[in-house]
């Protein structure tokens, strides 16, 4: 007991006596504690926010899917860019019933993952549609205006055709196209049109509309599910425009990020994109566009795309816009195309005014979004059996996740559809349907046509479309397999029973205790295995795919960094202590001569280094706590998409936990202990005789 | 064989590369309780080696060393350390005080290691020793605040505080001027006379040898009488 008093007294005084050495060691250990405590707090906080963000947006706590799937489930995206195959679960209801008996499970939700494309109509298509409506409504003023617009578009297409003529050898087709355009451009066309409006519209649909090529292809990631249940169970999902899809009805809810990225007017997107390049904190003049370079070139390209605005304007609208543009540009001479071109050639000086002008003056006159709530979307997808399938789905609303800025991220940007639409596009037929299809094919003598590849769709143009049309006519008798515009016969409502029985790709599971996911997964697997289902179950982090792996990677990197830091610290501290021990041999020898056991000397060194460790840990831990609290006040900004998904918002507000501090302090004490072992052994070996040899 | 210290044909060889150096050769000495013994001889003659053997800091290569009835030859480090702590007091040529402790704490050091006295008794004992060596006023001073003579007094107090059977001193005056050296030897002699403490010390200094009640002369590792 009294020896302990002596030891502590000696340790405290020795630490103070070797101040410089201990300061060096202390700084290393303070840094080590700081890194561990801050790192652990950040990782824990990240885990909490990630869980909050990911489990409440799409993964739920656990995901169950085909154990034989070729690719692991990656709900927030992987490196396969949508090409992954997660297998399938033949019948949702069977699995749901098995899981309902698992006490850990709170709720299950069917999910079907797929991809679809939408060919956005070009301006000519749209104008022709409006013209048809105007005819039906009997609105001659509007008809005249629309015919006028068609003639202007045709006038612009004419020179493009000459360019095509120079690079193609399909002269016959070019000649036909030229004749069609010339007919529309001619002064006599409005009179011709007035004679037989509807046949002329039909003719234009076939002969003129295909010549305009700027229809855009939008790419959708689809998530088929029980829509009302999805909305209820994923509270971070918020309908920002329109409504949800009513229960037991077909429909789609678009994702806001996806809408912003794919369906917004290209000029608007261009303004948005350039806007983002300016630093909002900096009030002074900034150079983003400059006088040359990629951004400058991009602006010039956009300026040449003035037709994207012009074609969407009526004569009346032009009459409103033109004087405003002249005033803005202080230009009295140029025509409207010239004005728009000049207007779009923005520079750093006028960018802000031009952008504001776009949103206040131009946006209300044009279609800001290709697809709006209430529209019917012609979705196309390749079925499992390789057919290209098309289905019209009504857009009920647009949703986003709370906390994520609308144009921030496209990951996890699923468009939500009802389960039946998913299954139609997924193309899995029941055996009965397959037999029926076989019979029909036999009856009409149809040749099985494959839809070809995506490349065919994009670049092969006509042939794939023709194949589809052919298929449509032969198979139109089938209720379930409908194509193109033939889907009017698709049943628009369904029963809960229909929705639940049938194929899904994965099943989302909410646990009663989300913290006990390991136990939950084990219980789920035990139940599905017992039921003879070949399913696998994964936690939310794994199920999220790339994002979850990235988070685990961050953890690993930090772990390795701490490991390296501590190895270096151990080596440095070890060397410092060995040198210090060698300097202290006379003192140690004296203590040994006076009757101190070797053990006493060993322990003294350990106590000394633990003391340094403890003081450093308290300092480092305190600094880390202060730092984390400071971050908590200001937030760690998520300045890219990836981080905003991880954080589930614009910033993370990390919090420290006592465990984090305990870990830091514990590790640092362990490090100083390990670093002391060798010097302490050396010290114990100092023989007492050195006391008699030593000089002071 | 009634002496408190009995060296019988003690030989000590130190390894030196492949060879070995014989530091002392067949030394036999018997020292009785209460003697004030000086071990004298030229440099390298083996004085320190003899004190090492008596002080249980090392064991002989051959021969036997008996301290207060205990034969040290076959003892391990732990038992030798116990012997040093409880039976032997040391005074060193370079004083060897612990720099981070003040005079009082340096004297208290062996008592704390022993752990036998209560706090109160310990305090009384340390103060008694401080008084005996005349350093009551300096009790709170660190070694670097003390003169050489004062330091050696602290060392003497530390050596005596546990009431050891023998006090060993290896050239205790070598680092002191002659007046201070003489004073230190006088102090040791007084403690020897008044309290019957057994002192064994080595020295070069004839004046110091003169104060001894017994003189052991060594040369080339052998005792020459
Ligand atoms: N640890 C050792 N290793 C090797 N040789 C040693 C060792 N200690 C002492 N010796 C040798 O033993 C002999 C006796 O040395 P010792 O120190 O006992 O002499 P000493 O009489 O105390 O001399 P001094 O008056 O210089 O202190 C010397 O030759 C010395 O070189
Ligand atoms: Mg000597």
List the helices and strands and how they pair.
The complex is a heterodimer of chains A (696) and B (225).
Chain A: H1 2-17, H2 19-59, E1 62-66, H3 92-100, E2 105-119, H4 123-137, H5 140-167, H6 171-185, H7 189-195, H8 197-207, E3 217-225, H9 227-233, E4 237-242, E5 252-255, H10 256-263, H11 266-277, H12 294-304, H13 307-310, H14 315-329, H15 336-344, H16 351-362, E6 376-382, E7 388-401, E8 414-418, H17 419-426, H18 431-444, H19 454-460, H20 462-475, H21 496-500, E9 506-511, H22 517-530, E10 535-539, H23 540-544, H24 546-583, H25 585-593, H26 598-634, E11 636-637, H27 641-647, E12 651-652, H28 658-684, H29 690-693
Parallel strand pairs in A: 3-8, 5-7
Antiparallel strand pairs in A: 1-9, 1-10, 2-3, 2-9, 4-7, 5-8, 6-7, 11-12
Helix pairs in contact in A: 1-26, 2-24, 2-26, 2-28, 4-5, 4-8, 5-6, 11-16, 12-15, 14-15, 24-28, 26-28
Chain B: E1 5-16, E2 19-31, E3 36-40, H1 47-54, E4 62-67, E5 70-71, H2 77-87, E6 88-91, H3 103-114, H4 119-132, H5 148-160, E7 166-170, H6 178-195, E8 198-203, H7 206-211, E9 214-219, E10 222-223
Parallel strand pairs in B: 3-8, 3-9, 6-7, 7-8
Antiparallel strand pairs in B: 1-2, 1-4, 4-5, 9-10
Helix pairs in contact in B: 3-4, 3-5, 4-5, 5-6
The structure holds adenosine-5'-triphosphate and magnesium ion (MG).
């Amino acid at each position: 007991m009294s020896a302990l008093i002596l030891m502590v007294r000696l340790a405290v005084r020795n630490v103070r006596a070797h101040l410089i050495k201990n300061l060096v060691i202390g700084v290393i250990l303070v840094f080590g504690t700081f890194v561990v405590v801050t790192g652990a707090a950040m990782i824990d906080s990240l885990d909490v926010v990630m869980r909050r963000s990911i489990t409440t947006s799409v993964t739920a706590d656990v995901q169950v899917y085909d154990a034989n799937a070729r690719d692991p489930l990656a709900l927030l995206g992987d490196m396969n860019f949508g090409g992954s195959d997660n297998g399938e679960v033949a019948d949702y209801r069977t699995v749901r019933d098995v899981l309902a008996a698992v006490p850990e499970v709170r709720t299950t939700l069917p999910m079907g993952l797929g991809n679809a494309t939408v060919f956005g109509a070009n301006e000519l298509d749209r104008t022709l549609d409006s013209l048809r409506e105007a005819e039906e409504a009997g609105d001659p003023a509007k008809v005249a205006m629309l015919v006028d617009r068609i003639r202007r578009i045709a006038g612009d297409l004419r020179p493009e055709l000459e360019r095509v003529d120079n690079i193609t050898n399909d002269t016959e087709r070019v000649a036909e196209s030229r004749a069609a355009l010339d007919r529309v451009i001619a002064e006599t066309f409005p009179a011709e049109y007035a004679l037989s409006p509807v046949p002329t519209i039909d003719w234009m649909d076939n002969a003129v509309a295909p010549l305009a090529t700027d229809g855009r292809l939008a790419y959708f990631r689809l998530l088929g599910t029980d829509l009302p249940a999805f909305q209820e169970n994923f509270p971070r999902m918020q309908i920002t425009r329109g409504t949800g899809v009513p229960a037991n009805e077909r429909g789609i809810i678009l994702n806001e990020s996806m809408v912003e990225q794919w369906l917004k007017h290209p000029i608007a997107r261009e303004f948005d994109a350039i806007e983002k390049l300016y630093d909002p904190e900096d009030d002074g003049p900034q150079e983003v566009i400059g006088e040359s370079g990629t951004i400058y070139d991009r602006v010039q390209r956009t300026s040449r795309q003035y037709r994207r605005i012009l074609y969407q304007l009526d004569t009346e609208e032009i009459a409103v816009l033109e004087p405003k543009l002249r005033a803005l540009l202080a230009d009295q001479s140029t025509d409207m195309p010239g004005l728009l071109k000049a207007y779009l050639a923005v520079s750093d000086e006028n960018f802000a005014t031009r952008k504001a002008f776009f949103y206040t003056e131009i946006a209300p006159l044009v279609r800001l979004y290709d697809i709006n709530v209430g529209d019917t979307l012609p979705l196309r997808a390749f079925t499992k059996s390789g057919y290209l399938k098309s289905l019209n789905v009504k857009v009920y609303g647009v949703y986003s996740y709370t906390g994520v800025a609308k144009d921030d991220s496209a990951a996890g940007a699923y468009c939500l559809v009802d389960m039946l639409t998913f299954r139609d596009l997924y193309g899995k037929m029941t055996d009965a349907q397959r037999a029926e299809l076989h019979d029909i094919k036999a009856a009409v003598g149809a040749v099985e046509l494959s839809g070809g590849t995506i490349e065919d769709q994009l670049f092969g143009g006509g042939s794939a479309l023709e194949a589809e049309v052919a298929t449509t006519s032969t198979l139109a008798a089938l209720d379930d397999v409908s194509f193109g515009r033939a889907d009017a016969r698709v049943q628009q409502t369904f029963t809960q029973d229909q929705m639940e029985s049938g194929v899904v790709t994965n099943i989302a599971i909410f646990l009663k205790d989300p913290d006990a996911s390991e136990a939950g997964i084990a219980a789920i697997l035990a139940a599905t295995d017992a039921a003879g289902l070949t399913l696998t179950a994964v936690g939310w982090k794994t199920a999220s795919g790339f994002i979850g792996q990235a988070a685990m990677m961050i953890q690993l990197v930090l772990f390795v960094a701490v490991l390296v830091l501590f190895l270096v610290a151990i080596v440095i501290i070890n060397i410092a202590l060995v040198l210090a021990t060698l300097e202290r041999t006379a003192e140690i020898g004296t203590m040994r001569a006076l009757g101190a056991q070797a053990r006493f000397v060993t322990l003294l060194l350990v106590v000394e280094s633990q003391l340094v460790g403890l003081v450093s840990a308290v300092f480092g831990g305190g600094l880390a706590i202060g730092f984390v609290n400071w971050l908590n006040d200001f937030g760690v900004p998520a300045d890219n998409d990836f981080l905003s998904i991880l954080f589930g918002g614009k910033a993370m507000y990390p919090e420290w936990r006592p465990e984090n501090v305990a870990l830091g302090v514990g590790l640092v004490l362990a490090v100083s202990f390990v670093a002391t072992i060798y010097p302490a052994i050396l010290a114990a070996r100092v023989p007492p005789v050195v006391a008699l040899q030593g000089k002071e | 064989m009634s002496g408190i210290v009995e060296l019988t044909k003690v030989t000590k060889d130190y390894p030196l590369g492949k060879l070995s150096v014989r530091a002392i050769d067949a030394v036999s000495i018997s020292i009785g309780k209460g003697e004030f013994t000086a071990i004298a001889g030229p440099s390298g003659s083996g004085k320190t080696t003899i004190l090492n053997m008596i002080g249980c800091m090392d064991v002989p290569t051959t021969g036997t060393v008996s301290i207060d009835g205990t034969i040290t030859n076959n003892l391990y480090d732990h038992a030798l350390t116990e012997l040093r702590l409880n039976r032997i007091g040391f005074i060193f040529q370079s004083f060897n005080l612990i720099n981070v402790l003040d005079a009082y704490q340096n004297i208290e050091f062996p008592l704390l290691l022993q752990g036998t006295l209560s706090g109160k008794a310990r305090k009384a004992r340390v103060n008694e020793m401080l008084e005996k060596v005349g350093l009551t006023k300096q009790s709170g001073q660190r070694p670097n605040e003390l003169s050489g003579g004062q330091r050696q007094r602290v060392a003497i107090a530390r050596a005596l505080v546990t009431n050891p059977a023998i006090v060993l001193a290896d050239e205790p005056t070598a680092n002191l001027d002659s007046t201070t050296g003489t004073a230190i030897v006088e102090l040791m002699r007084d403690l020897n006379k008044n309290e019957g403490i057994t002192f064994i010390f080595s020295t070069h200094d004839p004046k110091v040898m003169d104060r001894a009640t017994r003189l052991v002369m060594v040369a080339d590792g052998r005792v020459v009488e």
